[in-house]
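Intended use. Records like the one below are meant for learning the mapping from a protein sequence to its folded structure. Do not use them to infer anything beyond what is encoded.
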Amino acid sequence: MGRTSDARNKILEAAKVLIEQRGYSALGVAEICAAAGVPKGSFYYFFESKQALALTVIDEHWAAQRAEWEAVLNADASPLRRLHDLFEVTEEVQRVAQQRSGVVVGCMFGNLALELSNQAPEIRERLQAIFDAQIELIEAVVTQAKDLGEAGPAVDSREAARSIVAQIEGRVLLAKLLNDPEQLDTLWRNSLDLLQVPDDSRTLVN
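Structure written out for the chain above:
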Protein backbone atom coordinates (compact mmCIF):
# COMPACT_ATOMS: atom_id res chain seq x y z
CA MET A 1 0.00 0.00 0.00
CA GLY A 2 2.85 2.33 0.86
CA ARG A 3 4.54 1.81 -2.49
CA THR A 4 1.22 2.28 -4.27
CA SER A 5 0.57 5.58 -2.51
CA ASP A 6 4.15 6.66 -3.20
CA ALA A 7 3.74 6.05 -6.93
CA ARG A 8 0.50 8.05 -6.99
CA ASN A 9 2.11 10.92 -5.13
CA LYS A 10 5.05 10.93 -7.52
CA ILE A 11 2.70 11.17 -10.50
CA LEU A 12 0.75 14.02 -8.88
CA GLU A 13 3.88 15.96 -7.97
CA ALA A 14 5.41 15.52 -11.43
CA ALA A 15 2.16 16.57 -13.09
CA LYS A 16 1.87 19.63 -10.86
CA VAL A 17 5.39 20.80 -11.69
CA LEU A 18 4.99 20.15 -15.42
CA ILE A 19 1.60 21.84 -15.60
CA GLU A 20 2.99 24.90 -13.81
CA GLN A 21 6.00 25.06 -16.11
CA ARG A 22 4.50 24.11 -19.48
CA GLY A 23 0.74 24.02 -19.26
CA TYR A 24 -1.63 21.12 -19.79
CA SER A 25 -2.15 20.59 -23.51
CA ALA A 26 1.48 19.96 -24.44
CA LEU A 27 1.96 17.25 -21.83
CA GLY A 28 1.66 13.55 -22.54
CA VAL A 29 1.15 10.67 -20.14
CA ALA A 30 4.53 9.19 -21.04
CA GLU A 31 6.31 12.43 -20.17
CA ILE A 32 4.52 12.69 -16.84
CA CYS A 33 5.43 9.11 -15.97
CA ALA A 34 9.05 9.65 -17.00
CA ALA A 35 9.28 12.72 -14.78
CA ALA A 36 7.68 10.79 -11.93
CA GLY A 37 9.97 7.81 -12.43
CA VAL A 38 7.11 5.33 -12.64
CA PRO A 39 6.01 2.93 -15.41
CA LYS A 40 3.23 4.10 -17.70
CA GLY A 41 0.97 1.31 -16.47
CA SER A 42 0.99 2.93 -13.03
CA PHE A 43 -0.67 6.03 -14.43
CA TYR A 44 -3.79 4.20 -15.56
CA TYR A 45 -3.95 2.29 -12.32
CA PHE A 46 -4.64 5.59 -10.54
CA PHE A 47 -6.15 7.84 -13.24
CA GLU A 48 -8.47 7.00 -16.10
CA SER A 49 -7.22 9.91 -18.22
CA LYS A 50 -4.93 12.91 -18.31
CA GLN A 51 -7.93 15.12 -17.56
CA ALA A 52 -8.74 13.05 -14.46
CA LEU A 53 -5.17 13.59 -13.32
CA ALA A 54 -5.42 17.33 -13.99
CA LEU A 55 -8.60 17.58 -11.93
CA THR A 56 -6.91 15.80 -9.04
CA VAL A 57 -3.90 18.12 -9.28
CA ILE A 58 -6.26 21.12 -9.28
CA ASP A 59 -8.18 19.82 -6.27
CA GLU A 60 -5.07 19.11 -4.23
CA HIS A 61 -3.49 22.43 -5.15
CA TRP A 62 -6.65 24.25 -4.12
CA ALA A 63 -6.92 22.31 -0.84
CA ALA A 64 -3.42 23.46 0.08
CA GLN A 65 -3.99 27.03 -1.11
CA ARG A 66 -7.36 27.29 0.61
CA ALA A 67 -5.84 26.19 3.92
CA GLU A 68 -3.20 28.89 3.49
CA TRP A 69 -5.76 31.56 2.58
CA GLU A 70 -8.01 30.62 5.50
CA ALA A 71 -5.09 30.73 7.94
CA VAL A 72 -4.29 34.28 6.80
CA LEU A 73 -7.83 35.60 6.37
CA ASN A 74 -9.11 34.13 9.65
CA ALA A 75 -6.12 35.28 11.71
CA ASP A 76 -6.46 37.42 14.83
CA ALA A 77 -5.82 40.76 13.14
CA SER A 78 -7.79 43.61 11.65
CA PRO A 79 -9.53 42.89 8.33
CA LEU A 80 -7.23 45.24 6.44
CA ARG A 81 -4.13 43.65 7.96
CA ARG A 82 -5.39 40.19 6.95
CA LEU A 83 -5.99 41.33 3.39
CA HIS A 84 -2.56 42.92 3.26
CA ASP A 85 -1.01 39.69 4.59
CA LEU A 86 -2.77 37.68 1.87
CA PHE A 87 -1.14 39.86 -0.79
CA GLU A 88 2.24 39.38 0.86
CA VAL A 89 1.79 35.60 0.93
CA THR A 90 0.75 35.63 -2.73
CA GLU A 91 3.86 37.57 -3.72
CA GLU A 92 6.09 35.32 -1.62
CA VAL A 93 4.73 32.20 -3.35
CA GLN A 94 5.78 33.63 -6.70
CA ARG A 95 9.14 34.77 -5.33
CA VAL A 96 9.94 31.31 -3.94
CA ALA A 97 8.91 29.68 -7.23
CA GLN A 98 11.21 32.03 -9.11
CA GLN A 99 14.11 31.23 -6.80
CA ARG A 100 13.48 27.51 -7.21
CA SER A 101 12.98 27.31 -10.97
CA GLY A 102 14.34 30.61 -12.28
CA VAL A 103 10.95 31.82 -13.51
CA VAL A 104 7.70 33.09 -12.03
CA VAL A 105 5.23 30.26 -12.64
CA GLY A 106 2.08 32.31 -12.13
CA CYS A 107 -1.20 30.94 -10.80
CA MET A 108 -2.02 27.39 -11.82
CA PHE A 109 -5.73 28.18 -11.86
CA GLY A 110 -5.32 31.32 -13.94
CA ASN A 111 -2.95 29.61 -16.33
CA LEU A 112 -5.34 26.70 -16.88
CA ALA A 113 -8.33 29.02 -17.22
CA LEU A 114 -6.57 30.85 -20.06
CA GLU A 115 -5.48 27.62 -21.72
CA LEU A 116 -8.53 25.38 -21.33
CA SER A 117 -11.63 27.46 -20.69
CA ASN A 118 -12.97 26.76 -24.20
CA GLN A 119 -11.70 23.19 -24.45
CA ALA A 120 -12.41 21.29 -21.23
CA PRO A 121 -15.82 22.08 -19.67
CA GLU A 122 -15.22 19.96 -16.57
CA ILE A 123 -11.94 21.70 -15.80
CA ARG A 124 -13.55 25.09 -16.49
CA GLU A 125 -16.35 24.34 -14.04
CA ARG A 126 -13.88 23.24 -11.37
CA LEU A 127 -11.88 26.44 -11.83
CA GLN A 128 -15.03 28.55 -11.65
CA ALA A 129 -15.89 26.92 -8.33
CA ILE A 130 -12.42 27.68 -7.00
CA PHE A 131 -12.56 31.34 -8.01
CA ASP A 132 -16.03 31.61 -6.46
CA ALA A 133 -14.63 30.19 -3.23
CA GLN A 134 -11.78 32.70 -3.29
CA ILE A 135 -14.27 35.52 -3.78
CA GLU A 136 -16.34 34.30 -0.82
CA LEU A 137 -13.29 34.21 1.46
CA ILE A 138 -12.32 37.77 0.58
CA GLU A 139 -15.93 38.98 0.65
CA ALA A 140 -16.17 37.99 4.31
CA VAL A 141 -13.09 40.08 5.13
CA VAL A 142 -14.37 43.08 3.16
CA THR A 143 -17.69 42.89 5.01
CA GLN A 144 -15.84 42.85 8.32
CA ALA A 145 -13.80 45.86 7.22
CA LYS A 146 -17.01 47.73 6.42
CA ASP A 147 -18.56 46.81 9.77
CA LEU A 148 -15.51 48.20 11.57
CA GLY A 149 -15.43 51.37 9.50
CA GLU A 150 -12.13 50.43 7.82
CA ALA A 151 -13.76 50.34 4.38
CA GLY A 152 -16.27 52.71 2.87
CA PRO A 153 -19.92 51.98 3.75
CA ALA A 154 -20.98 52.24 0.11
CA VAL A 155 -18.63 49.44 -1.01
CA ASP A 156 -20.39 46.40 -2.46
CA SER A 157 -18.58 43.59 -0.62
CA ARG A 158 -19.23 40.95 -3.27
CA GLU A 159 -18.18 43.08 -6.21
CA ALA A 160 -15.16 44.39 -4.33
CA ALA A 161 -14.08 40.82 -3.55
CA ARG A 162 -14.57 39.84 -7.19
CA SER A 163 -12.43 42.78 -8.27
CA ILE A 164 -9.70 41.91 -5.77
CA VAL A 165 -9.53 38.31 -6.99
CA ALA A 166 -9.42 39.55 -10.59
CA GLN A 167 -6.68 42.00 -9.62
CA ILE A 168 -4.64 39.23 -7.97
CA GLU A 169 -4.92 37.09 -11.09
CA GLY A 170 -4.03 39.98 -13.38
CA ARG A 171 -1.01 41.00 -11.35
CA VAL A 172 0.21 37.41 -11.09
CA LEU A 173 -0.13 37.15 -14.86
CA LEU A 174 2.02 40.27 -15.29
CA ALA A 175 4.54 38.89 -12.81
CA LYS A 176 4.78 35.73 -14.91
CA LEU A 177 5.06 37.65 -18.17
CA LEU A 178 7.80 39.94 -16.84
CA ASN A 179 9.34 37.32 -14.52
CA ASP A 180 9.04 39.88 -11.75
CA PRO A 181 7.20 39.11 -8.47
CA GLU A 182 7.28 42.80 -7.57
CA GLN A 183 4.45 43.33 -10.04
CA LEU A 184 2.24 42.32 -7.11
CA ASP A 185 3.37 45.28 -5.01
CA THR A 186 0.51 47.47 -6.23
CA LEU A 187 -2.22 45.08 -4.99
CA TRP A 188 -2.41 46.75 -1.60
CA ARG A 189 -2.53 50.34 -2.81
CA ASN A 190 -5.11 49.53 -5.46
CA SER A 191 -7.27 47.67 -2.95
CA LEU A 192 -7.21 50.60 -0.52
CA ASP A 193 -8.69 52.75 -3.28
CA LEU A 194 -11.15 50.06 -4.30
CA LEU A 195 -12.41 49.67 -0.73
CA GLN A 196 -12.65 53.44 -0.22
CA VAL A 197 -10.48 53.15 2.86
CA PRO A 198 -10.32 56.42 4.82
CA ASP A 199 -6.90 58.02 5.13
CA ASP A 200 -6.69 57.43 8.88
CA SER A 201 -7.22 53.68 8.38
CA ARG A 202 -4.46 53.40 5.77
CA THR A 203 -1.87 53.82 8.50
CA LEU A 204 -2.95 50.50 10.06
CA VAL A 205 -0.70 48.63 7.66
CA ASN A 206 2.56 50.07 6.40
